């Protein structure tokens, strides 16, 4: 069973993330940041992961700690659910359009955290959501899932569309990378024998 539950409890946030990598896209979110909930739903639906994320944070200050810590906690949950990564595809990629916007996401469950984020949003906020926080979410995920992640917004005039294509592509790329590779016969996908 490729499932995990992780709780992160700090002076700034308390977050619980549950993930089932072999789910069907069932999702439940209560982070206190509505736009983040909307983006997390994209990961669940397009990744076909069952996700349940609950967060309480110091959103009276701003949303930064909550968004970043949700990324951290979700990254930890993915790492735990994947275990030694035996038998997974390891690499995943996706291009996703939404009207005029197009994004590409490429992921490698390499064990080496690295975020390469090339996104120029057309405005600083989507509703009340600060677009800089999307990067903070992904940085938290990358650092704690141990993945190399390339995110490119290739075009877009609408910041909401840009952000949504990124999260949808992220879900699809994660799905591909985390899938079991029947041809690998349970091997660790590395010539080193470890990830």
Rounded to an integer, what's the Rg over CA atoms? Answer: 16 Å
Q: How many domains make up the 3D coordinates?
A: 1
Strand order of the largest sheet: 1-2-4-3
Which fold name is given in CATH as the topology?
Answer: Ribosomal Protein S5, domain 2
Corresponding CATH superfamily: Imidazole glycerol phosphate dehydratase, domain 1
Mean pLDDT across the residues is: 97
SSE order: EEEHEHEEEEEHEH
Model regions low in confidence, pLDDT < 50 over at least 5 residues? none
- Annotated CATH architecture: 2-Layer Sandwich
Main β sheet profile: 4 strands, mixed
Q: Report the helical percentage.
A: 25-40%
Keywords: Amino-acid biosynthesis, Cytoplasm, Histidine biosynthesis, Lyase
GO molecular function: imidazoleglycerol-phosphate dehydratase activity
GO biological process, one term: L-histidine biosynthetic process
Family: Belongs to the imidazoleglycerol-phosphate dehydratase family.
Describe this protein's structure.
The protein has 195 residues and is α+β, with helices and mostly antiparallel strands. It has one domain (3-184): Ribosomal Protein S5, domain 2. It is built from 4 helices and 10 strands; from the N terminus they run βββαβαβββββαβα. It has helices at residues 34-47, 64-82, 132-145, 159-178; strands at 3-9, 13-20, 27-30, 50-57, 91-98, 101-108, 114-118, 125-126, 129-130, 148-155. The strands form 3 sheets. Strands 1-2-4-3 form a 4-stranded mixed beta sheet, covered by helices on one side. A hairpin with a 2-residue loop joins strand 8 and strand 9. The two termini are 20 Å apart. The mean pLDDT is 97.
